Amino acid sequence: MSDGQLDGVEALLEEARLLAWMPAPAERLRLREAAGLSRAQVASAVGVGRQTVANWESGETDPQPPGRGKYLKLLKGLAELHPAPTAAPEVAGPSGPPLPTTAAEFPATAFRADGLVVQGEPEPCIRCGVVTPFKATDGRSLHPGGLCLPATTPPASAAPPATQAEPATPQTSGPTAPVRPSPTPARVPSRPQRRAQSSARAQAETNTLITGAVHEELERAEGDAEAALQALVKRAIPDVMRLFEETRATARYQYTAYPSLPDILHKPSKREPDQIWEARPNFHHPHYSLKAPGTIRVTALDANAAYLSALKCWLPIGKLEHHTGDEGVDPKRAGVHLVTPAAWDHPHLPDPLGDREEPGALWITDATLRLLLRLSGPKYGLIEAPTVHESWTSGATENFLDALRKVLAAARETALAEDDSITEGYVKAMYSKFISTMGESIHNREIQRPDWMHIIHSQAYANLWGKAYKAHQAGLEVIAMMGTDELHVSGDWRQVFTEGRGLSQMKIKHSDAKASGEYTVGRVAR
Description:
By secondary structure, this protein is of the alpha+beta class. 35% of the residues lie in helices and 14% in strands. Helix 6 crosses helix 7 (225-234) and helix 6 (191-220) packs antiparallel against helix 8 (236-247).
């Protein structure tokens, strides 16, 4: 037999040994948690998706090739480092709470205010003895919802039940041995609670991808913060796409990454835009000017992380379908629409269609159409509803990118609290590049959804318009509104907006432009 044939035989034998040894799903989970590894780390190491690892740990599916071999080798190594506890849990003495002796005496699972099970230091479960981080209401470890493994439950033969024909003889001397009842279901988490638990675990694991990348580049740059940030910005596109896929591991919607698109969403050339109008604002109040003499004080405000907030918007999931008239206008659909807008007769407020020079029909995004329809309703009554001529839409959801938004927002919030400018800059690069390259870009080949890009841009402008209207309704004068985040007002703006760097807050904008920070304008004679 040749050396190659021997190597093949040894490989088969090794795989057979690992398959025979393969631990139960609960032990797979215990080994990973004992090693402090996230599902994302394991998935990356063995070449599968994070949800696949979750399925292997829950017992929904057994490990399968091609990742099975690497996964079992990893578990084998972890088992040597973190052997399973063999000793039975000690009975609490006088200093601790007594072991339950009846099913009714088991404490209930402890839940936090947000519906997640309380976790702490892993200890043996008081019901079955298997180590678990989940806690009961009295602080001891307890599997939630009676989810103990039958194989680890003490066998009934250890304490045979007494019968009336042969009554049990009471013990007259020595300590009474505690009775271990069979598992009795405790309060089972509801579906929303289980979904919240899964979401929280997924968010925690994706957060480790962000912190791990920062630590990796800082170590590679030998502590040089500027060099580390530059490296993180360069890798922002593949990193955010990985985050996107990770946050979609438990999603209920399948999306189309490369749908066939109508001509209106294709650029005629590299330098020419497509036909979609995003309603980008460039508003300046006609009654005020920097050149006119005056003492009216104006504050330039900045809306924080405007594009990150705009990820919360209605996005089409599948292939866009054509509709004539207003057939494509539906709260549960999104896309782009050809409309003829009504005239805007409020010169003291920004036009919700932005700085548009040419009259007539134009293609707008779903975010802009929703804004126009709101403003035409009874709550605002500011404009007539636009006439819709045709649409390209698909079934939509407002929460499609919400998991990604929450992960990035949480990382940004933590970075601001810790004065971590590296992570803050890295997060900003990820969400801004994610949006800017999801259209027809050579820098991101994993997705081509220019309709999403336009809708998110328009949502950012619509959000800024809402802030301008809020300021106007509170008695402030809106002097200017530009781009995605710039709002200039006169008056006590702190009575209207909370100052800070949070997503819902506003801060004073400082730049090299003349009209930044605080400045004065004069009223123009009319």
